[in-house]
Amino acid sequence: MIVDAHVHLLPERIAAKIRRFFEMHQAPRLIYPYSAGAARAALQAAGVERCWSLPYAHRAGVAAGLNRWMSETWRSDTFVVPGATVHPEDSVAAVVAEADRELGLRIFKIHCSVGAFPADDERLDALWRHASEKGCPVVVHCGSAADGTAAEDEVAAVERTVERFPEAPIIIAHFGAPALGPVADLIRRSRRVYADLTPMVATPVHPPRSLIAGIERRILFGSDTPTVGISIEDSIAAVRSWRLDSEDEIAILGGTAETLLHGAG
């Protein structure tokens, strides 16, 4: 099973606003339509069998409504696993509790660049406690640069969170590119840190084979559909180009994502 663990199937108004942002900043051509239905169809056409749809909040007061939309729109869809988000200026404990108990959302995404906060912002402690207790995966875009790239000190902010909440399953988006080495080191030093291979718009995230040796089963496939200039098929082919042992390849292309999801109680 191919599971795309980094997709954004979002409300039309938000999706259109994100697309305008990239167009205004002269990003490379984004090859998929931004509407949720069209993006979903593109994923299926590429052979993806399940996807995680990850929302993110750019300011306080947005997350709760977005989480409700995610649950209402995708909760009964067997192809889409809807995620939740939160912003540190929200009542974090309340937003997280509603997402879990009322909306049944089992994945979270936080975006440090869009939300303008560091990964180790202590106002997010309620999220990390929830993730630790429930085994709920949290995808963290730790880079704060406008182009989404991460610096080593931003990976260090994730590490400080890991030190305080070692049982929280944390997935570092885009493998923390270009800080690939520090992310791989953090994975090796931790029990529950993972990374995804999501491209940076039109730049592939494809660590050297030597860098991922021994941590293959802590890596997840992601395409960033629809905000991406690389095809889903090409991102899948990049994983297969490593010529890994079959069990490791299966883990990256979906097995690890499924294991994390089933562990989120």
Structure description:
This protein has helices spanning about 10-25, 35-45, 65-75, 90-100, 110-115, 125-135, 150-165, 180-190, 210, 230-240, 245-260; strands at about 5, 50-55, 80, 85, 110, 140, 170, 195, 220. The protein has about 260 residues and is an alpha/beta fold. It has one domain: TIM Barrel. The two termini are about 20 Å apart.
User: In the CATH scheme, what's the topology name?
Assistant: TIM Barrel
Per DSSP, the total helix count is 11
Oligomer: single chain
Q: What's the main sheet like?
A: 6 strands, parallel
Q: Mind telling me the CATH class?
A: Alpha Beta
Overall shape: it is globular
Instruction: Supply Rg.
Output: 17 Å
Labels describing this entry:
265 residues; alpha/beta; TIM Barrel; 6-stranded parallel sheet; 3-stranded parallel sheet; 11 helices; 9 strands; 43% helix; globular
Per-chain topology:
Blueprint: E1 3-7, H1 12-24, H2 36-45, E2 50-53, H3 63-74, E3 80-82, E4 84-85, H4 92-102, E5 108-111, H5 112-115, H6 125-134, E6 138-141, H7 152-164, E7 170-172, H8 180-189, E8 193-196, H9 209-212, E9 219-220, H10 232-240, H11 246-262
Parallel strand pairs: 1-2, 2-3, 4-5, 5-6, 6-7, 7-8, 8-9
Helix pairs in contact: 4-6
Task: Describe the structure concisely.
This protein is of the alpha/beta class. Helix content is 43%, strand content 12%. The chain is globular.
